[in-house]
């Protein structure tokens, strides 16, 4: 056997050292990112001298629920969680097996945090009350599994939540659940796609931040700090199957985007899962539209746990929102499962649809 020459040994050693250095740099970078994630919410809490830590506790409970739902989504086919559970929810929609599991996970995790005064879920007709001795400072509204009609075909789905200030100091009742969009303290969504992404808006100078779940360590890593929506985009997102039921303003808007005088049409993208469509809009700009139609004159999306939280996130990311009259966050809340039209995205794109509503005397 030939002896390894000095030159070859030197090359092999140098190459090995180079590879090891790359791994060490990656490990250090990963550790720094992990430390940021663990401390992110706590650091924001410390900046507020009046903070009690209750919001941090609540967010940790929600993060635990998101991790559990993410795991269940990835194993749904194997664990036979696809398919219809056999009941219909308050929205008149068939309840999926995974809907039920996700709802239970969110309810149990949030209740155990002792930070919530009341829970409002898409899957429950009435508010979920908390024992007076276990009540916290916040009202939480959530859609445990948005886009669940897409579960069986493996399209991206998500979870949406909003944390509202409790309107009174004492115990709360059902009427106190009619909170306003401007009372949101924190809102976020989780996207269960090729990876699990959590996007969080704390409503302060931190803006909107994205965290990706590292399944190898079970932690969310800060990967998208300070997300900002471009001032104008090149994509519109709407279900064009309902075009015949749109009002004149929406019809004209979509026609202008498809057949512009500049001969540079917008691209059309529509997943059918609000979390996926809004996340893309935040990343790349453009507009997401879910208008009122003849069959749904008040809109289709729910205000407390879909419209408001997404509007809060978008506006904190520098975007704009509209409900056909005003900002979504200024919509008057009249009932727990109230619906509303939704237009949100890049500032200039949303202004365009607002101008058309004024032109057609619709607002």
UniProtKB/TrEMBL annotation:
Localization recorded for this chain is:
Cell junction; Cytoplasm, Myofibril; Nucleus
Q: Which reaction does it catalyse?
A: beta-D-fructose 1,6-bisphosphate + H2O = beta-D-fructose 6-phosphate + phosphate
Q: Which GO terms describe its cellular component?
A: anchoring junction; cytosol; nucleus
Q: Which CDD domains match?
A: FBPase (cd00354)
Pfam families per the UniProt record, alphabetical:
FBPase, FBPase_C
Q: Residue ranges of the Fructose-1-6-bisphosphatase class 1 C-terminal domain?
A: 229-357
Keywords tagged on the record: Calcium, Carbohydrate metabolism, Cell junction, Cytoplasm, Hydrolase, Magnesium, Metal-binding, Nucleus, Phosphoprotein
Residue span(s) of domain Fructose-1-6-bisphosphatase class I N-terminal: 37-224
Q: What is its EC number?
A: 3.1.3.11
Q: Which cofactor does it need?
A: Mg(2+)
GO MF, any single term: fructose 1,6-bisphosphate 1-phosphatase activity
- Give the main localization category: other
* GO biological process, alphabetically ordered: fructose 1,6-bisphosphate metabolic process; fructose 6-phosphate metabolic process; fructose metabolic process; gluconeogenesis; photosynthesis; sucrose biosynthetic process
Pathway, per record: Carbohydrate biosynthesis; Calvin cycle
Top-level taxon = Eukaryota
What the entry lists under PANTHER family is as follows: FRUCTOSE-1,6-BISPHOSPHATASE-RELATED (PTHR11556), FRUCTOSE-BISPHOSPHATASE (PTHR11556:SF1)
What family name appears in the similarity comment?
A: Belongs to the FBPase class 1 family.
Fetch the HAMAP family from UniProt.
Answer: FBPase_class1
Question: How does it associate, per the subunit comment?
Answer: Homotetramer. Interacts with ALDOA; the interaction blocks inhibition by physiological concentrations of AMP and reduces inhibition by Ca(2+). Interacts with alpha-actinin and F-actin.
Q: What does this protein do?
A: Catalyzes the hydrolysis of fructose 1,6-bisphosphate to fructose 6-phosphate in the presence of divalent cations and probably participates in glycogen synthesis from carbohydrate precursors, such as lactate.
Q: What is this protein called?
A: Fructose-1,6-bisphosphatase isozyme 2
